[in-house]
Amino acid sequence: MTEPTFAGLVSRWYERNARDLPWRHPDVSPWAILVSEVMLQQTPVVRVLPAWQAWLARWPTPAALAQDSPAEAIRMWGRLGYPRRALRLRECAVAVVDRHGGQVPDQLEQLLALPGVGTYTARAVAAFAYGQRHPVVDTNVRRVVCRAIAGEPDAGPATRPADLVATEELLPVEPAAAALASAAFMELGAMVCTARSPRCGVCPVETSCAWRASGQVAPDGPTRRPQRYAGTDRQVRGLLLGVLREATGPVPHQRLDQVWSDDVQRARALSGLVTDGLVEPVGETAFRLVGDGPPAPVPT
Ligand code: SF4
């Protein structure tokens, strides 16, 4: 009898243990999967779930979102964080309508050419929406492959071409099995082979894991600390955006001045929102979400 492969072991574990997440259901559209992948990039599942459901209830197709304003996309994004993703998602919807008749394309090159769709998202959509064989490599997958195959504790800060090659080598040849394995690797990294406390005792590849076999030597250097949020420009941007999201029209400068007492930091945060295309000035005394109404008068 042939030994089960790494992908086979992880896929079998996945079929028994995967979380029942709505974007994994078989009847979900490629658009819904694309939206989930964008939302999940920097936000935990528990926060994405209600936002994803609300987003798709309002914009079930790329055409529906493309017809709405950037301001509404930012509003619906709510407090998911990194709100430029909302703008990119709407630009992506417009491009899907213009270039592909409103259907999310199934070709990797076409997916990669969409606004806001990078190496990871394009392959995730090709694999999970269209059942294709591509290495889908996020932080969790890099960590699993790095530990289990290379025997090293940490996969480094960003996905490299070598990570794609290493992951692809593990995938079954048959596309549907490869897509299943890609989802399984991600789930294993998210639920078992976690960054801080891997649960090797329940891991399906414990007996073959190279890092486990080598004694799980901890990485050199200081442990990475979680990023601080309180008091950062990110917090101030979030507060400003919160006021602008809830407003029905332009918000006077004085109202925005109330959200944060440090004038310099507040001005820097507001300027950053304008530079990022999330907010626009209305005359010289007010601001609003970008595209939230007729074109803003140009200050004379
Ligand atoms: Fe990760 Fe432990 Fe499984 Fe190795 S045995 S892949 S370190 S959870």
Describe this structure in words.
It is built from 15 helices and 3 strands. With 300 residues, it is mostly helical. The protein has a domain of 57 residues: Arc Repressor Mutant, subunit A (Orthogonal Bundle). Strands 1-3-2 form a 3-stranded antiparallel sheet. A hairpin with a 3-residue loop joins β2 and β3. α1 crosses α11, α2 runs antiparallel to α8 and α5 packs across α6. The radius of gyration is 22 Å and the shape is globular. The N and C termini lie far apart (80 Å). Iron/sulfur cluster (SF4) binds next to α9 and α12.
Please give the radius of gyration in angstroms.
22 Å
The N- to C-terminal Cα distance equals 80 Å
Order of helices and strands: HHHHHHHHHHHHHEHHEE
**The first-level CATH class name of the domain at 233-289:** Mainly Alpha
Could you tell me the CATH topology label of the domain at 233-289: Arc Repressor Mutant, subunit A
Within the largest sheet, what's the order of strands? Answer: 1-3-2
Percentage of residues assigned to helices: 40-55%
| Uncertain residue ranges | none
List key phrases describing it.
300 residues; mainly alpha; Arc Repressor Mutant, subunit A; three-stranded antiparallel β-sheet
Secondary structure blueprint with pairings:
Layout: H1 6-17, H2 30-40, H3 45-58, H4 62-66, H5 70-77, H6 84-100, H7 108-112, H8 119-128, H9 139-150, H10 161-168, H11 175-191, H12 210-213, H13 233-246, E1 251-252, H14 253-257, H15 263-275, E2 279-282, E3 286-289
Antiparallel strand pairs: 1-3, 2-3
This protein binds iron/sulfur cluster.
Iron/sulfur cluster binds next to helix 9 and helix 12.
